[in-house]
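Hi R.,

Here's the chain you asked about this morning:
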Amino acid sequence: MRSPMPYPPAPVIPDMSADLWNSASSVLDVNWSDDHMVPSRRLYPHQWSWDAAFIAIGLAYVNPSRAWRDLRSLFEAQWPDGRVPHIVFDPRTAEGDYFPGPGFWNVPAYNGRAARGSTGLVQPPLHAIAAWEVYRRAAAHGAAAAHEAGDELRWLYPRLVAQQEYLSRRRDAAGEGLASIVHPWESGLDNSPSWDTAMAAVPADMGLLTRYTRRDLEVADASHRPLDIDYARYLGLVLNYRDGGYSDTALVQRHDFVVECPSFNAILAAAELALVHIAEVVGADAEVHRERAQRITAAISKHLWDPATRTFRSRDVRTRMLSPARCVNGLVPLILPDLPDHQAAAIMAEAASERFGLPEATGLPVPSYDRTATDFDTLRYWRGPIWININWLLRRGMLVHGYRGEAEDLRMAMIRLIHRSGHYEYFHPVTGEGIGAPTFSWTAALSLDLLADRSVPAYARAA
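And the predicted structure, written out as tokens:
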């Protein structure tokens, strides 16, 4: 089989920005569904949690009222314990049109929400960052717009705080200040090699794939999706959590998968920094959020850092072992302004190495996994392909730590890639070809932000 050709440098196209802006706006119009945005019409016909945050950030440029509505729609499904579910199901979509649907999750009914179900899992809590970004765009349009946006923040603030407290308290399985995930889906990086060692200890009941039919393979190429053995383990983890009433007591004893992810926890800390600014707008105590952000950052720096390789890794709480895999989630702590300088420099060295390759070397954004690894896969979801959302976070981290030239190179690499290949879910890490769902919402939304905003992230500025 012929090897794919390397991604060629894109020519400078004078109207590239206008083309990309218009196409991105069109995607967001197509994927709006009454009161929320779907990631894509066929593969993901419901509302996803961290998708909603990424989407709101870009949607605020073209339709701020929809950006606020999307966040509200998600938080209207928040559980009494503070968790924000990773999927909120649209009751207009039939159970058989998506699996695993609300019937499989069978979550408890509360607050009169029986008609609109959700899952019992969570995703990275990017929502405070999104809310602050939407607010500051609105506030730039005058006092009336700022007042209206302030009302939105006042509605969201206690819910955002409850989300943070749920993750920081109920999910601190190791008792060391880091939130644990109990399912790979909670990371947002579903089948990343970062979980392989921990997942190897999870029983794989292949009979579950006989009892339940994977719907994703009906609308997506199997070579792009997680393997059957992965999916069997995913279902088993959900069933165990569900049958235990989605309880978070005795996590290590009751769950087969309990892992601390560097990107999840970096986002948790960055959300606290965003809440510093939100608290000042709504008249709440800002200092508590600043202190929490510092504590989480210190815990990441201490417990998820591998001094031998000078990289951040996920940690299996059950075994206390760091993952051997070098994955893109290890680069995301760069978004934290209080990260020690030597660790920020090490992240940049890792990103520039042959394992990932910044645009200067490849012409492309960074892949999701170590390019030099023997199991690097150019097609399979989070095991090699390029994802715009993670590169967007990495670029913000570069700006936070003063790597402005590298940040601009990465911004332009993302813009060129999306303009050339389309608003795909993810991209081939060698050819730049679009893979997965087309007309993907967060790719479109983040395109708008990449075109419009070149400033240092607002949450990292002095309050």
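Residues 209 and 231 are 8 Å apart (CA to CA).

Let me know if you need anything else.
M.
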